[in-house]
Amino acid sequence: MNYTDESLVGAQITLTNCDREPIHIPGSVQPFGFLLCLDEETHQIVHASANTGSMVGLAPDQLLGGMLDRLLGPEHLAQVEALWPALVEIPKLMGVRLDAVAGQPFYKLILHRHDDLIWAEFEPVADTAASSLDLPTLNTTLGLMLESETVLDFCQHAVEQVRQITGFDRIMLYRFAEDESGEVIAESKRADLEPFLGLHYPATDIPKQARLMYLKNWLRFIPDVNYAPAPLVPVRNPTSGRPPDMTYAVLRSVSPIHIEYLQNMGVGASMSISIIQEGKLWGLIMGHHYSPRLVSYELRDLSLFVGKTFSALLKNKEQHDDREYQQRIRENRLRLFNKMTSQANFIDGLYKQAPTLLDVMDCGGAAICFEGETITLGNTPTKPQIEELLSWFQQHVREDVFHTNCYVRHNPAGVAIRAVASGILAISLAKEPGNCIFWFRPELVQSVTWAGHQQKVEVMRDGEVHLSPRQSFEAWKQTVDSTAAPWKSIEIEAAKEIRLHISDIRVKIFNELQSRASMLSRLNAELERSNDELDSFAYVASHDLKEPLRGIHNYSLFLLEDYASQLDAEGVSKLQTLVRLSQRMEALIESLLQLSRVGRMELAVTETDMNEVVADVVDLLHPRLEQNQATVSVRGPLPTLFVDPVRIREVFNNLITNAMRYNNKPERQIVIGQAPAGISSPRGPVNPEEFAVFYVRDNGIGIEARHYDSIFKLFKRLHAPDKFGGGTGAGLAIVKKMVEKHHGELWVDSVVGKGTTFYFSLSKTL
């Protein structure tokens, strides 16, 4: 889209037409240097700024049609010509001496290619010594910017560094809002100057065509706002019929409206650096000096480096801020859910202890309307006003989740509560009317500070009315009625999650009470019958089966002791086999009983330090570990969870024992730790907000992948009973049931001959 009108070239620019001013083709330059435009094919000079005579003693007509050898000696000319093939819009800088000019002065030469021209801009210097790159300053700048933890800190470091580089009286960082208005969010200034931090500016301060220029040319510099422009000779290009496009020119002359704007502010020199994010203008680093100030090209370039670095890092800083806020919302929401679930009355969990509804998101207040009762937290409307809001909500809102940052737009009567409730986020708790939760946000800024009047000021000049930029930069107040900060998507999603969680609780408690009571009755009957059968089985297994087994075992031992001398070797061997089989049968029955107990048990959940659990188990197994030359190391501190500590000790005991048993290495190494976020189980990625994942890793014999599922089956063994210390094959089945009791999952990863890692997850919301 073209926002400019090229017919305005040479016309008087006023506030009535400045939004169409073709600022990219001003036809003149700022006179802190001079400009030559060369035909990109012939390299002949086709434009020269009118100030060449005053700067180098050669009038434009003496230069036009000639070559750069009118200024440069052979050596520098050769260096320049070597750059021509690679020139693009990005400028190239070199130091040159004008050998063909009287006095042979030194200049900085800035070259770029654009609009079918080669642009040669000359800035005078005292000698050939180029400003050295201040590496310590650059290192400090980058370090501070990288270490910034918040966007505002990041912005503050940026303005301080640019001010240190340029020596300007004031450097500001100006951020654009969605409506293209702006706000000064960071500032570094001379101590005696009035602060601009927090001031807002209307979008009309920066016309559309200027914003487009800011996207193309990152840095604009005006060393003296009272300069007299030096026109190009000729002004219009004979080929295009218009002035050449100076979008990328360092010396480009500035709109007279902008100059008048700066003069009205008392500014003597100005500089601005674009902040660009994903192709859009995010903001500006703006510098003001209250007298003329010529900053060297190298220091301007270093300031531009800060601006581009800022632009490159900005997204990460914003994402960091967003992640911090999202993490806080998630953590408080999960804690809120835990409290709701643990309370006899789930409503108590919403407000009686921190975190409350107020802690889930940034807001001023909240209200819970439930079964005719209204509970308020923080700054809220009065209870009668909340009742009126509830009545309006029931009549006009059909969706389950409603949000607005300007309630008055929906209900004019909302003006009465705008101070505390211009913004409203609401969720309905169930189909029954009158059950809702409201979050409130106050009026964003009841009197926003703006820099000067937003309307254009009419003034008398030479007996005629002229439009002029603001004649004063004194702040004035514009009332922003009944508008709050908008609700973020993460906040709306959090409200939806809370609604779903509460709705689920309500459905379970109220809407399905009768059906659940009936189901519970049937389940109780079935459970009682199952328990009776299980008790009978336990009795038989422990008494009727174990007693005969003990008898077989004992009599076999008696036979060996009393009659072994009368038996041949085969008879003795058979008796010994009988002893082993009876022992194994008793161990199998004991494992079956233990598995049955795990399935019937109720967890005794307490807040448990997993470091202490592992330490207890390792201490208990210490003699066996020493005997097997096994070492156990724990990686990093383990978290504290709500679990059954007795059962989790059994889990670690079994896994450590297996790691020690199924290992044929001289040094048996066992490592225990918490798995990093992002780990996946056979069912898919594990949500780190809901589960903690632990691992027990060894350097043992390993397990083939085809056995990964079968090893968790009851009495499933991969080796003969007499290998690797025996065992019943029930241990992992028991561990699996204990983990599942904690709503978790058990799985394995292994490399044959190198070792095995068992992972298990435990719910964080028991």
Explain what this protein looks like in three dimensions:
There is one protein chain. 38% of the residues lie in helices and 23% in strands. With 766 residues, it is an alpha+beta fold. The strands form 8 sheets. It has a 7-stranded antiparallel β-sheet. A 6-stranded antiparallel β-sheet has the order 9-8-7-13-12-10.
Short description:
The chain has 766 residues and is α+β, with helices and mostly antiparallel strands.
Shape: elongated
Please report the distance between the alpha carbons of the first and last residues. Answer: 59 Å
Mean pLDDT, all residues: 80
Parts with pLDDT < 50 across at least 5 consecutive residues: 3-8, 13-21, 463-477
DSSP, total strands: 31
The largest sheet, given as strand count, sense and whether it forms a barrel, is: 7 strands, antiparallel
Tally of DSSP helical segments: 20
Rg over CA atoms, rounded to whole Å, is 40 Å
Strand residue content: 15-25%
Strand order of the largest sheet: 1-11-3-2-6-5-4
Q: What portion of residues is helical? A: 25-40%
User: Which secondary-structure class do the elements indicate?
Assistant: alpha+beta
